[in-house]
Specification:
The protein is α/β, with parallel strands linked by helices and 185 residues long. It contains three helices and nine strands, in the order βββαβαββββαβ. It binds flavin mononucleotide.
């Protein structure tokens, strides 16, 4: 059976979101952010250029939902009006150019934490597990209340993303020992 190249250019639906074709930009770590975690002009230019080039769906780099566990600097829990306004510039421009854009949401590095990063933090995991890069460092098990807190933080983060005009969110998940990865093992 031969594949049909034209399928690449057919619209598709993901839930209620209609994407104009099957071409998607995968999430890639991007440091072009303002201190509040919103995308700066460099990032806007990068994503909008992809939309102009015909990509149907852009998945952004990740942002943490909360900073109480496995803390990150900028998070959706601390994002205010400036975060929403800055990211609205991005989502509006991408939409004007015919693409959809979803925000990748995360919840910390988990067992993937590296030097200097995990050392000053409380290393956590789904259960007691060693660090991926430094097996001598053990990560403690999350409590059930903490897991509930993380679940709620995804929902709250998704709500902020919606206010900023994103078409959806992608939950950063299963690779290299990031926090969600441990729940799949
Ligand atoms: C520099 C770089 C940064 C990446 N950052 C992320 C990221 O922030 N979130 C994520 O889920 N995947 C990230 N990835 C993984 C990519 O999204 C993609 O899944 C991976 O490169 C495999 O796709 P490919 O076979 O088309 O390269 C990154 C990959 C690269 C090369």
């Amino acid at each position: 059976m031969k594949g049909d190249i034209n399928a690449l250019f057919q619209p598709m639906k993901i839930g209620t979101m209609e994407v104009k074709n099957r071409i998607a930009m995968a999430p890639m770590g991007l440091h072009s952010k303002n201190p509040d975690g919103s995308f700066n002009q460099d990032a806007i230019d990068l994503y909008v250029a992809r939309a102009k080039g015909g990509v149907g769906l852009i998945v952004t780099t990740g942002i943490a939902c909360q900073n109480k566990l496995d803390s990150m600097r900028a998070t959706l829990a601390t994002a205010g009006d400036s975060y929403i306004e800055s990211n609205k510039k991005l989502t509006d421009e991408v939409h004007k150019n015919g693409a959809k854009i979803v925000l990748q949401i995360a919840n910390g590095a988990g067992r993937n934490r590296k030097d200097g990063f995990f050392l000053d933090n409380d290393p956590i995991s789904s259960s007691e597990n060693p660090n991926v890069w430094h097996p001598e460092v053990m990560h403690r098990a999350l409590t059930t209340e903490e897991v509930q807190f993380l679940i709620q933080s995804y929902a709250d983060g998704a709500f902020v993303a919606k206010q900023a005009g994103f078409d959806g969110v992608e939950v950063h998940a299963l690779h290299e020992g990031y926090l969600m990865d441990q729940f799949s093992m």
